[in-house]
Amino acid sequence: ALSSLCALSNLVVTTRHEKQTVGAKIEYDSAGHIRTIANCAREVGTTVSLHNLFDALPVRHKEFLRNLKREYTKAVQMLQGYCLISTGVRISCYNQAGKGKKQLVLSTPGSPAIRDNIISVFGAKQFQQLVEIPEGLECDESCSTVKEKRPLGLNYNGEGKLE
């Protein structure tokens, strides 16, 4: 994935392991090879930054700019999915248009619970609207019909008791 990002943009990874006293700023060229490595001050963690997306591909860049809102929405939706399932990892995504101010798009706290990620991404009000579906139930495509899964070889009567 990193080599693909390198081919499409200027990629910089800034990282620091908890056992290190300083971080490293790693810049990649368009072929995915390390261009420079420099020590830098940073807290523990990793930041992946993309700059000048599609600049190396003028036709794709023009198409991207023409459909910017749609492409941005698709990227945010994909990141929301990663944010929901990535427990124990703090994710922060920012957008900076031109030389404007950097704006937080979405973030997660690094909690081990998916519940906390849902609240971070969609808000507590949306979370309260969710209905938990207990294990052992299955539903049709629209979930208008919910029935209990039956173990193979066992017959249940209409009251959920073994016959």
The end-to-end distance, rounded to whole angstroms, is 55 Å
Average pLDDT score: 84
Strand content: 25-35%
SS elements, strand count: 8
Low-pLDDT runs of 5+ residues are 150-163
Per DSSP, the total helix count is: 5
Describe the structure.
The strands form three sheets. A four-stranded antiparallel sheet has the order 3-2-1-4, with helices on one face. Helix content is 29%, strand content 26%. The termini are far apart. It is globular. Helix 3 (68-85) runs antiparallel to helix 4. With 163 residues, it is an alpha+beta fold. It contains five helices and eight strands, in the order H-E-E-E-E-H-H-E-E-H-H-E-E. Strand 2 (23-28) and strand 3 (34-40) form a beta hairpin. The model is unreliable at 150-163 (pLDDT under 50). The protein has helices spanning 2-8, 58-66, 68-85, 114-122, 124-128, and strands at residues 10-16, 23-28, 34-40, 45-51, 92-95, 103-107, 137-139, 146-148.
